[in-house]
Amino acid sequence: MVIFKNINDIKKYISLKKDEGCSVGFIPTMGALHAGHISLVQKSKQDNMLSVCSIFVNPTQFNDKKDLEKYPVSTEADIEMLLTAGCDVLFLPAVSEIYPDGEAHFKTYDFGYLDTVLEGAQRPGHFRGVGQVVARLLEIVEPASLYLGQKDYQQCMVLKKLIELMGLATKLIICPTMREADGLAMSSRNRRLTEPQRVIAGVIYQCLVSIQSKQQNGRFDIVKKECEDLLKAKGFVPEYVALADARDLTLLSDYKAGTPMVALIAAKIGEIRLIDNMLV
Ligand code: AMP
Fold this sequence. Notes:
Number of strands: 9
Bound molecules: adenosine monophosphate
Shape: globular
Radius of gyration: 19 Å
Number of helices: 11
CATH architecture of the largest domain: 3-Layer(aba) Sandwich
Strand order of the largest sheet: 1-4-3-2-5-6
Strand content: 15-25%
Helix content: 25-40%
Distance between the termini: 39 Å
Number of domains: 2
């Protein structure tokens, strides 16, 4: 695996590989890698001759600066995991490399409605920062395909729109959410859970399964209340328990037969905020 910290060097290397006929798959991450991230690398390796992973904890997408300060960093272990997975290129830029003129100086995109609901509403400015950094990374790597996890459902929709707004030909590949044995979606933030918090964290998955399984004969307002009560009883503070049209994230007040739906939950335990979703 070749590791680059510098934009000019990685661009030159990728351009050389493209000249040799390699198609490029790109997996942007914030590090503290787990099997979920590695599944994206594996998918990219199946599809492409060159897989490029980036690790960059992007300051502009953290609306909560405490969350940024406490974001787990484990670069040595990440490199080991990427080597084992057979990743070809790792891009590991410093903040000054990505934002040489300061964080405010890069183009941002308007995601409209997507930036106003759920994660957009709970984390003002978050998707603006995500769009800003991914646009920058896409301009550097210029991949044929971009690999994202369904775990961040709304982010996938935002980045689909980003690709459209940028007029790129990049194909978006959404990969399934990797879970722990109790259903908890793998997340870098799980590392910050205490043992007792970790034991109960699977309740988010149980709620999603319950929303999914009650679609035939349940009422969403009742199921939603049951989920909120269960989350609270376990010590979570639910931010949202929502049902939406899976195509455009229009919020639904009840199950809608014939409509592809997605159930989404965000909840905090202590200082740690977890999100998850499931197609219904
Ligand atoms: P992050 O490092 O959290 O920014 O995530 C980098 C990429 O990995 C994003 O596309 C995430 O959606 C994806 N990802 C995170 N967790 C998982 C998971 N449990 N399963 C699959 N993909 C994931």
